[in-house]
Amino acid sequence: MLITRVVTWSDITDDKRAWTTFAWLGALIALCDGLNRVGFVKWFADGIAPHMSGYSPRVAMIILLAIFFVAHYFFASVDAYPSALLPVILLTGAAIPGIPVKVFALLLCMELGIMGIITPFADAASPIYANSGYLPAKDYWRLGTIFGALFLISFLSIAVPWASLLWGK
Questions:
Q1: Whole-model pTM?
Q2: Considering 12, 75, 102, 114, which has the largest number of Cβ atoms within 10 A of its Cβ?
Q3: C-alpha–C-alpha distance, residues 120 and 114, integer Å
Q4: How far apart are CA 13 and CA 15, in angstroms?
């Protein structure tokens, strides 16, 4: 587009919000990778696993799904988050007798679809909306928390019973 002069270099450099979005995404993905490299993910898994013994498979699955959802507040984009935490939660669930791993994996993946609204960096589109200036940051966080809670409650009250029917428990 530069070569054909559809846009000028000035057009590109003048769009400060776009450059802010690129810098934000790059920093957040690097942060998520750094958390994985310094052992935060392993520490997180080691902290969850001992507390899961003694629960029924359904209750343990609900707790792990809630942890997976809420932990997204502390991680960058929906691209980096699953690679860092999904294996940890999945392995923790697989270690609990009675949890159907395939169904649990599907529920974890389904849950990724409802996380995109909760923070200004939750998915690829969120920084674009957050940096557009149409919604103040305070409102983005407040509404993200409200809708995140509604989505999580709906997910846990509809998807988990439905999945329980699939695995017959």
A1: 0.70
A2: 75
A3: 14
A4: 6
